[in-house]
Records
---
Amino acid sequence: MLLRLFVCFVLFLLWGCTQPPASPARPNIVFIMSDDHAYQALSAYSDHLIQTPNIDRIAKIGMRFTNASVTNSICAPSRATILTGKHSHLNGKVDNHFAFDSSNITFPLLLQQSGYQTAMFGKLHFGNNPEGFDEFKILPGQGAYWNPEFITKNEGEIKVEGYATDIITDFTLDWLENDRNEKDPFLLMYLHKAPHRSWYMAERHYDQFLNQTFPEPSTLFDNYEGRGNAAKEAEMSILHHMGWSGDNKLFPEVMDEINLNEIGYDKIRTEMTMNRLTPEQKEKYIKAYTPINEEFKISYHNMSDEDKMRWKYQRYMQDYLGTIQAIDENVGRVLDYLEANNLMDNTLIVYTSDQGFYLGEHGWFDKRFAYNESFKTPLLMAWKDHIRPGSVSDEMVQNLDFAQTFLDLAGISAPEDMQGESLVPVLTESGTWKRESVYYHYYEYPAEHMVNRHYALVSKDYKLIHYYFALDEWELYDRKKDPQELNNVYENPYYKEVREKLHIELKELRKKYKDNDTLSKEYIDRFLEDAAQGKVFGLTTTRAKEIQEKRKSGP
Ligand code: SGN
Ligand code: CA
């Protein structure tokens, strides 16, 4: 008997040795992205504005990137770069205006073809539906905070009562619980609309946020001395370009009462939002914002520009950060689900934003510039037993790298023309990964916020920017000595050698990424023609026509 047992045991061992080792299951990917979430408003980076304990859980169990950036700091182009692994000039989505070219090969398509289940919920902003998804429920365009409509794969267009951040999470959890099969790996893209302008928070957060005062950034009153014209010409000043009503939530009737005239569609924006609310939602909203409006009526006529800036900044922060509170709670719901269902073990979790955002730095809101607050983006990644808990990477990674990273994890070789690099060696702290500098190119001009076209090289030490098109100006920043980017040292003789070296590097980067100076003349003319016909949001027909005329008479 014993002998038989022994023989069986030896045979068992031999059998085990002759079998190939079981290949590890391909990881699931949960890609969480918010829209315009500044790293300054995430406590894993800095807790001076808000606590985000749930999002921070990803940093605690995984890696936090301190130098993650985007290639083009605006919504749809960022998303196109993420999906295609290519810079804007190659995937064609250079700005928010024209639709995404769906013939692009994307990583979700490749994952789906290789057996991944794929689902997307939330904001895409492509002007068409995503390819390569078994299931999607996406917001049309920018989408709405309140009672939003969704374009769905299987149910046509639907409208759901409630608050967007909660609803997008409900869809996500519902898919995880009811639609996912347990045998195949999955890619889940969970994409928030918040904290995008015009910053409407969930009702449950009114009490907490409408009574808070937030610290001001030291550059709130920046006068743009020491920099070129692009910063001076941009229309994203909290004082001058943020709407009293559409952004800062003054009631239109209060503005009429105190004779505060706003140009443009500021009050109309409020009316459009209010028309979406149910009577109960509206009642709570009016109740919450009435004290602010009443107080403003009394103080407005005695306010200096400085006071107005301070008031607008506080109003902005209360609303913006309020929207982040709901994201944090909802990310917590998703992480809880993953934990409770043993999905943490083999899931890569990513938290990022489609770009950074100005929270009063340089007196600004919005993004678009190659300066830090908009160029950089938060990035946290966790994957149990593969990424060291609490690790920090200062590598210069970009949204360009996601596609190849995810394909690498799934064991799929990336198409040759993808331009990023797999982050797996960085994540697992194994092998070598070296990148000295990254490339940036922003195109959407003339357009809302009037940030001139520019391209840039960014290394850990320096930033070299070229504004072209309506300007022809260079800027150079010493990132170590001047982290706030207040002094353009391009003409400073001390930096002559550095400048020359960076020029050569920039040329090489542009060659490597196959970029050339400008967009085709035809593209710009088509864009301006649409704007002249009132089809480009945020650019008035008058202004577009003026620019068209100038181009006709110009060189
Ligand atoms: C809207 C906003 C802009 C914002 C763009 C792009 N205006 O047009 O402030 O820059 O979206 O944002 S609003 O009056 O509609 O709020 S992006 O994140 O989609 O690129
Ligand atoms: Ca955005």
---
Amino acid sequence: MEKIMISEMPKHVGEEVRIGAWLANKRSSGKIAFLQLRDGSGFVQGVVVKADVPEDVFAAAKAIHQETSMYVTGTVVEDERSAFGYELQVSGIEVIGESDNYPITPKEHGTEFLMDHRHLWLRSKKQHAIMKVRNEIIRATYEFFNGRGFTKIDPPILTGSSPEGTSELFHTKYFDEDAYLSQSGQLYMEAAAMALGKVFSFGPTFRAEKSKTRRHLIEFWMIEPEMAFTEHAESLEVQEQYVEHIVGSVLNNCKLELGILGRDLSKLEQVKAPFPRITYDEAIEFLHKEGFDDIQWGDDFGAPHETAIAEHYDKPVFIVNYPTAIKPFYMQPHPDRDDVVLCADLIAPEGYGEIIGGSERIHDFELMKQRIEEHHLDPEAYAWYLELSKQGPVPHSGFGLGLERTVAWISGAEHVRESIPFPRLLNRLYP
Ligand code: 4AD
Ligand code: MG
């Protein structure tokens, strides 16, 4: 008998098959047992009818507990009532391992309890769906960039430099030297873009940020494309096409998961390029009109500001040209104004906040040298980076998309802690 995955059942209707599975949930009476089975690839209902199976099989169905592992044999049948569309008419159950008072039951549990049991919580239907959405976004990311001539480049994680400011660095010893966990691979991606033209990275980044919000992780994964001979306006076009592509891919390939998550699809279906662009100046003016008296030109936006701006649109919105003073050292000045830079943050709808930060980079040697000095960065640590603007410098632009914020937005999860398998938060390194 063929051993298959639950996700393969549509190809095996009418056949008797064998699956490895855990019991997710169960309902039973004297004559029939309904087993919610999961195998990692999906969830299916197994129906055990007392009159149709040997006595020991029905006894096993009655005895198993939530998360008991087993091999189950049965016939795949179509079932219009289930979201999956199929069920298994069980003919045999072979228990592999018992479960011992599985702590996460179908009742409500508090968030801290679930976070303490994250190693088990991942097995639940909603968490499973979010991980599937995450995987689809990663798959679609490779598809998008590989399809457009980008080369995947892996920047180092142990570094001596800090693109996004020195206040949020994780420090470690590198033998006798000081090192930091990467907060962004950007500077290395710029070097790589000068070698390979268009590059993208996908890897973990670290921020020792004492923020405890639904948008902040200490360790998060970032996709960082970088493009030579590319001005900022062209980079914005790549960004909106990329975001349209990942949202479209999830809509096409994760229908079951979005259903489980109860996601409002009409909101996602509107995410089509082009996205609106407003300047930082316009954003400040808009906020003042909306009654936000707390913010002044030159301030960075907080979550309530971003949410108010995003609520005005049904698509993600670019806020362009932020003040030079609140952005990192490497950003290209606006051609007509000294006080703003050629950059943009992409703000997701529905209160999910900034999902992309990007900019054109300085490629003038003197200006870059001056900025490194102004920001009190160690000239030795940045010597290699500065050298890039001496060796055939070209206009170049890039951006970083935060994977977890994007997963949270697309899957409708209320907090980024659910969009990464094992979140690192301000007060959490366990499990
Ligand atoms: O805006 P950020 O800091 O930009 C950079 O790091 C640039 N060097 C990227 C580049 O141009 N190559 O971060 C980029 C994105 C943010 O828009 C956000 O989505 C995500 O990374 N991000 C976080 N996600 C979760 N937790 C945090 N603490 C995050 N900090 C940034
Ligand atoms: Mg940012």
